[in-house]
Automatic annotation (TrEMBL):
<feature type="transmembrane region" description="Helical">
    <location>
        <begin position="224"/>
        <end position="247"/>
    </location>
</feature>
<dbReference type="GO" id="GO:0005886">
    <property type="term" value="C:plasma membrane"/>
</dbReference>
<keyword id="KW-0472">Membrane</keyword>
<dbReference type="InterPro" id="IPR016833">
    <property type="entry name" value="Put_Na-Bile_cotransptr"/>
</dbReference>
<feature type="transmembrane region" description="Helical">
    <location>
        <begin position="127"/>
        <end position="149"/>
    </location>
</feature>
<feature type="transmembrane region" description="Helical">
    <location>
        <begin position="199"/>
        <end position="218"/>
    </location>
</feature>
<feature type="transmembrane region" description="Helical">
    <location>
        <begin position="64"/>
        <end position="87"/>
    </location>
</feature>
<feature type="transmembrane region" description="Helical">
    <location>
        <begin position="155"/>
        <end position="178"/>
    </location>
</feature>
<keyword id="KW-0812">Transmembrane</keyword>
<feature type="transmembrane region" description="Helical">
    <location>
        <begin position="35"/>
        <end position="52"/>
    </location>
</feature>
<feature type="transmembrane region" description="Helical">
    <location>
        <begin position="93"/>
        <end position="115"/>
    </location>
</feature>
<keyword id="KW-1133">Transmembrane helix</keyword>
<protein>
    <submittedName>
        <fullName>Bile acid:sodium symporter</fullName>
    </submittedName>
</protein>
<dbReference type="InterPro" id="IPR038770">
    <property type="entry name" value="Na+/solute_symporter_sf"/>
</dbReference>
<dbReference type="Pfam" id="PF13593">
    <property type="entry name" value="SBF_like"/>
</dbReference>
Length: 333
């Protein structure tokens, strides 16, 4: 049985809280400033936790990392634009912004590595690829967002890059500078920092959805739209999983590398996506924009957990078969 993710439950509760008790009036600028501050601290600690070896490592297996980066920053946006071109009126315009923004985000780190490990794939490559994707995403995501959403009146790529650099990249770089002194402490307190990271995201989500609720979010978002968002997210994930699996085999990647490509190339980060949306989009639309990402995050966790177990089961059967053949050969000597 798959256990419910406590963080996803917390996100749902946060959305409910923002719906019933949204912040308004004088509390709004306080929460907006708090959201900026906690996200800056989160990226600072990410920089402090990340070893220099992880930042510069993984260059040797360049074909694998190039494949993952192309899936993350080229395949996803092209599929998102294709879905929008085919079904432009299926979703609320701000929700389509969210789908297209989702397609521009970097991969996750923790879940990509965890699922690659469960599936018995190339874990070192997954570590390097997911880390590289997140670092490059700080630059690439706002540029891609500006290009992809240009016709929708979203923030320009240049302005987005400046805001990302000031609010996210600068704290990350400062964390990296202080990593030799803070790194060991950060690793010893990994669980505590993980809780503070998630708390930071919850504050941003509460602030964003409070603004959206005040602007009439649930009057614009009937239950049928939630179902259509789930459908669009599911189709997007299914297409990427299919393309990454078949593409890896056609290009001749070994099974362990295929697993890393499938799990790193199909993920989208909620941890970095929510802060980036908070920087790139007007406050009134952030709640609608991050809704597809929150739903996609839950779907990718469930689907990839099932897929990882399937890969692991196949690997176990192959190992058992190879062991049986080895015993048979030794007994025949």
């Amino acid at each position: 049985m798959l256990k419910p993710d406590p963080f996803l439950i917390s996100l749902v509760c946060t959305v409910i809280l923002a719906t019933l008790l949204p912040c308004h009036g004088a509390a709004v600028p306080i929460f907006q400033d708090l959201a900026i501050a906690v996200i800056a601290v989160m990226f600072f600690m990410q920089g402090a936790r990340l070893s220099r070896e992880a930042v510069v490592g993984g260059i040797v297996n360049w074909r694998l990392h190039l494949a993952i980066l192309l899936c993350t920053f080229a395949l996803f946006p092209l599929l998102g634009l294709g879905l929008h071109a085919l079904f432009p009126h299926m979703l609320h315009p701000a929700v389509w912004l969210g789908i297209l923004f989702l397609c521009c985000l970097p991969s996750t780190v923790q879940s990509s590595i965890a699922f690659t490990s469960i599936a018995r794939g190339n874990v070192p490559a997954a570590v390097c690829a997911a880390t590289t994707s997140n670092i490059l995403g700080i630059f690439i995501t706002p540029l891609l967002t500006g290009l992809v959403l240009e016709r929708h009146g979203a923030a320009s790529g240049h302005g987005g890059v400046v805001a990302i650099m000031l609010q996210l990249l600068l704290p990350f770089v400062l964390g990296q500078v202080l990593q030799p002194w803070l790194g060991k402490w950060a690793h010893r307190n990994k669980r505590l920092l993980s809780m503070t990271d998630r708390g930071s995201i919850l504050i941003v989500v509460y602030t964003a959805f409070s603004e959206a609720v005040v602007q009439g979010l649930w009057h614009q978002m009937p239950l049928s739209q939630i179902g259509l968002i789930m459908l669009a997210d599911s189709v997007l994930l299914a297409l990427v999983l299919l393309i990454t699996t078949l593409g890896s085999r056609v290009l001749g990647f070994p099974r362990e590398d295929e697993i890393a490509i499938v799990f790193c190339g199909s993920k989208k980060t909620l941890a970095s996506g929510v802060p980036m949306a908070n920087v790139l989009f007007p406050a009134a639309t952030v709640g609608l924009v991050v809704l597809p990402l929150m739903i996609f995050h839950q779907i990718q966790l469930f689907v990839c957990a099932v897929l990882a177990r399937r890969y692991a089961h196949q690997a176990g059967r192959k190992a058992d078969s190879a062991s049986s053949r080895a015993r048979g050969a030794s007994s025949g000597i």
